[in-house]
TrEMBL record:
HAMAP family reported for this sequence: NDH1_NuoH
Subunit structure comment from the entry: NDH-1 is composed of 14 different subunits. Subunits NuoA, H, J, K, L, M, N constitute the membrane sector of the complex.
PANTHER family, sorted: NADH DEHYDROGENASE SUBUNIT 1, NADH-UBIQUINONE OXIDOREDUCTASE CHAIN 1
Gene: nuoH
Protein's name in the database: NADH-quinone oxidoreductase subunit H
Record-stated family: Belongs to the complex I subunit 1 family.
Membrane topology listed for this record: Multi-pass membrane protein
Amino acid sequence: MTPSILAQDPTLADFGRDPWWLVLGKIVFAFAFGLLATLLGVWFERRVVGYMQVRPGPNQVGPFGLLQTLADGLKMAFKEDILPKAADKVVYFFAPTISVICAVTALSVVPFGPMVSIFGHHTPLQVTDVPVAVLLLLACSSMGVYGVVLGGWASGSTYPLLGGLRSSAQMISYEVAMGLSIVAVFMTAGTMSTSGIVAAQGDGTELTIFGQTVPAPGWYAILLLPSFIIFFIATVGETNRAPFDLPEAESELVAGFMTEYSSLKFALFMLSEYVAMVTMSAVTTTLFLGGWRAPWPITIWEGANSGWWPMLWFFGKVIALVFVFVWLRGTLPRLRYDQFMRLGWKVLLPINLVWILVLSGLRSIEDWDTRGKMIAVGIPAGILLIATIFWPSRRPKPKPTTQEQVDNRPHGSFPLPPMDLQVPPSPRITRVVAEREPANIVAGSDSREV
C-alpha cells in the first residue's frame, strides 16, 4: 500500500468506482473496527473508572488485563441460554441483533481518512457516501433504540417493559435535540454528505487578531459551540450511557430491558451499547471535530492531512470522546426521570430552537460567512448554554440550627427522631385502644401518646 502524496478531499463522484474486493475490504475493516473498539472500550472503561476510584481494575488476564474482555465474552458464550416462558420468542431473539446491526451500519458513511492509493487504486478511506449521509446516521441511531424497546416488551416481564418504555421516551426526547443540532451543521457546510462536511471544516481562511494573521479554526465545535454541546448531550442520552442510563437502572429496575436476557443475547446488548458509543464518538468527530483532519499545531506539518496519517488523528479524537463518556459515568450520579425529561424538553430543545433562529438571521446578513464573526457569536452562546444547564433552579433552604429544632418541637413531647425514621401510628391499634379505653383518649391528642 502506497500512501497518496498530496492531500485530497473525496467527493461524491469518487465513490462507486472501486472494485468489489476493495469494497469488501472496506466493509470488513469498518466491521472489525467496531468489534475491536468494543473489546478495547470495555477494558478502557474498567481501567479508567478503576483509576478514578483508586483501584487497579482488570490486570490479571493478559498484559495489563487486555484479554479480560475476551475472557468475559467466552464465559457468556458458554453460559446457559434461558428463555422466559412468557416471552415472544421471535422478537425476543431478534431484538439484540437489531441494536448491533444499526450501530455497525452507521460506520459505513463515516470517513476515516482522505483519498489514498491502495494497490494502485485511488480511493477514499470510507465505505460509501450519499448526499444525505447524515440522515442515514440519524436513522441508524433511531432504529437502534427499537432493539431496546422490543427487547423489553418481548421479555414478558414488568421490569424489562418499564425499561423499554423509558427507552422510547428517551429516544423521542433527545432525537429532536440531536436533529436540530445538526441543522446548524447543514446550514454552515451547505451539504449533508459526511465527506463534504469534513471538507468544509478545512483550514482555508485566516483571521486577524491584534494585528496578527493566524489560521482560522474551522471545526464546527468552535464555530457552532452551542450545537456541539447539545449534540453531545443528546448523544449520551441516545446511547443510554450514565448519567442517562435510565432504561437499565439497576437501583430501580434490576437491570431494565436486559433483565431477562442471558448468554450470547445479553452479550449482544452489551456489544451494541459499546459499538453505539464508539460510533457516535466517530459521528461527533466527523460533524464537529474536523473528522480526520489534524488538530493545530500538527497542521504546521504539510503532510499531516495526507496519506495514512489522518487515520491516526481520527482515532485519537474518537478515543478522546470515549474517555469523556467514561469520565461522565465515573463522575455524575444517575438523574431522576423527571430531571432527565425536563433537561431534554425545557432546556435543550428551546435553546436549540433559539440558536437555530439566531444563526439563520445572522447568515442572512451580507458577508456573514467569515469564521471570525461566527466565533464571536458561537463561543459566547456556548458559554451561556453551559451556564443555563448548570445554573441551580432554586436556592436550597438553610438547615435549621439545633436550637431552632428544639424550639419547633411540640410542647411537652419527648425528643423525636428525624422524620424519615419515624414510624407512623397504626390505625388498627389506635382504633382498638379507643374502643377499649375511650376515657383515656383526649380529643385532639397525638395517637403516639395513647
